[in-house]
Amino acid sequence: GAVVSQHPSRVICKSGTSVKIECRSLDFQATTMFWYRQFPKKSLMLMATSNEGSKATYEQGVEKDKFLINHASLTLSTLTVTSAHPEDSSFYICSAQEADVNEQFFGPGTRLTVL
Amino acid sequence: AQSVSQHNHHVILSEAASLELGCNYSYGGTVNLFWYVQYPGQHLQLLLKYFSGDPLVKGIKGFEAEFIKSKFSFNLRKPSVQWSDTAEYFCAVTTDSWGKLQFGAGTQVVVTP
Questions:
Q1: Closest CA relative to residue B74, chosen from B47, B53, B95, B56
Q2: Considering only CB atoms, which residues of chain A are within 8 Å of chain B?
Q3: Could you report the per-residue pLDDT of A2-24, keeping only the tens digit for each?
Q4: Could you write out the DSSP letters of every residue in B26-61?
Q5: Residue B8 pLDDT
Q6: I need a surface site. Which of A63, A76, A84, A96 has the fewest CB within 10 A?
Q7: Where do the DSSP E strands lie in A1-115?
């Protein structure tokens, strides 16, 4: 149980375009989803927390207009990187958490490369 | 600001050796503590967690960790490692009700046959 999927697993796009990444909880209802960014040989950095049906809460230094997060249902959250630039190239990981369960389940990540 | 420190960035050891990875956090209030593992090419998996109670926590795959409140530490141990324990290990802490995880920098562990 507690499986989280991400799609796509890998995406290459041109600078200036937008990319949408999906995060799904496959066998549980995720009231909260988290989006992380992982740089090579570095730890995970929390970008934002999203609760189903409400606006995401962004961490300091994360541009909310650039990284659009939508959590429209209890099983799906999306991260859209708008007007992507090469410095946005990274590994993006989502996690999902059920209500009253203090444990996050992680997706496999999405490798974004912006040319 | 809160922080999580992992002392070793890279550890190489032989099979059957004992492993101990250090983790310290800086936060004076109540914390929940986690160790995650990321095997090559795979997603993060929970090894073990501590919320309250017995400070010696046993997790999966023979791992255990000890919470020492006075030292703000949550070190991970395994008495005898296997080649399959080669992975990156992350210590993480939550300090709020939202469950926002703050991760350490990670320790790359390589177990040689």
A1: B56
A2: 4, 32, 34, 42-46, 49, 57, 93, 95, 97, 102-104, 106-109
A3: 899 999 999 999 999 999 999 99
A4: E-SS--EEEEEEE-TTS--EEEEEE-SS-SEEE-GG
A5: 87
A6: A63
A7: 4-7, 10-13, 19-25, 32-38, 44-51, 57-58, 67-73, 76-81, 90-97, 105-106, 110-114
What pLDDT does B1 receive? 64
Mean pLDDT of successive 10-residue segments in chain A (115 residues)? 91 96 94 91 88 89 94 92 95 91 90 96
Long-range contacts of A99-105 (CB under 8 A, 24+ apart): A99/A29, A99/A31, A99/A32, A102/B32, A102/B51, A102/B94, A102/B99, A103/B46, A103/B49, A104/A34, A104/B99, A104/B101, A105/A2, A105/A3, A105/A4, A105/A25, A105/A28
Interface contact flag, B103 A106, Cβ < 8 Å? no
Q: What is the mean pLDDT of residues B17-25?
A: 96
Residue A104 with chain B: CB contacts under 8 Å = 99, 101
Residues A106, B43: C-beta atoms closer than 8 Å = yes
Q: Could you tell me the two tokens for A47?
A: 């970008």
Residues 6+ apart with CB under 8 A from A51: A31, A32, A71
Q: Which of A13, A6, A52, A11 is nearest to A33 (CA)?
A: A52
For the record, the structure tokens of A74 come out as 């209890």
